[in-house]
Amino acid sequence: MTLPKGFGSGGAGGSSSADVERMIGRRVENMTGMITISYWAAVLATFGGTAAGYFYYPWAYPTPSGHYAFIVLVIIEAIGYIFCVKVMQEGSNKNSNGVVAGSIAGSAAFTLFVSIFVGW
Amino acid sequence: MAQMPALIPKEVEIQRLKKIWLIVIAMGSTAASVEVDNFVDGSLHQTSIRDSAFTPAHWWLYSHFVALPLGWGSVAIYDRKVPVLRGPNNSMNTGLKMTILGYLATMFTIGVNEMWHFWFVEEIFAVPNHWMFNMGVVVAFMGALAYVVRVYARLVELGAETPGENPYVAEMYKMALEGKLYSRSIP
Predict the structure, then answer these.
(1) pTM of the model as a whole
(2) Interface predicted TM-score (ipTM) of this complex, two decimals
C-alpha cells in the first residue's frame, strides 16, 4: 500500500506497524482522560450558565427552572460522555468503566447538591 | 457497491473515523442541549419581555450557533484524512457541506435577528428573522444525518461496528453500504 510522504520505506516495500502507529497518533481508546475532563468542563459550564440565570435574572429564571434545566442538561451530557468512552473503547482491550462510573456518580452527587442547596 | 478501495491502512481509517465520531457526539449533545434552551428562551420572552440581548437564554442559543459551525468546520478539516468521505470531484462531502452551510446561515442570522429586534421589540415567535434560524437548522440536520450515516456505514463496512439486528435497520445499513441511501452521484 502506498503511504503518504514521510511514511514507509521509501518505495522499497509495504508499511510497517510502526508506520501505522505513527499515522494514527494518539489512539481513541486512550482518550478517556481528555473526554472525562471535557465532560466535567461541560457540567461546570452548565452550572455557571443556569446559576447566572437564577442569580442575575431571578424574575425571568426562578431557581426551580434553573435546576430543572441543569438536571436535564447534565443527563444529556452524561449520555454523550458514556457514548464517547464506550464507542472509543469498543473492540479494544481497554476498559474505563470505573472512571466513567465514578465520574457519573460524582456529577450526580454534584447535581443533587446544587439542586438542594444552591440558589434558594 | 463494491468495497471502497483502501487508500489508507484499515486500522488508521477506523481510528480516524472514530475521532470524527467523537466530535460528532459532542456536537450532538450540544444540539440536544439547545432543545432545553428553546424552552428557557420561551420562558424568558413570556416573562421579562426582551430587557436585553445579553440574557443566559441568548448566550446559550447564540454561542451554540457559533460553536456548531466551528465544530463542523473542524470535522471538515480532519475529514480530509479519510479518502472514503470525499465528495464529488474530491471536494468536501456533500452532507458535511450542507451541515456547515446550514449552521453558517444560523450564525449570520444572529446578527440579522439582533438588528431586527433593535427596531421591533416584540415577542412573536413567527417573525421572518426567526425563519432563517429554523431553515438553517433543518438544512444542517439533513446534511448531518447523511454524513453520520456515511461514517457509520463505513465503520460497519470495516468491521468496527456491528449492524443492527432489526431487519429494517439492517436493510438501511445495507442500502447505505450500496450507496443507495441517498444519491450515488452525490457521495
Answers:
(1) 0.83
(2) 0.82
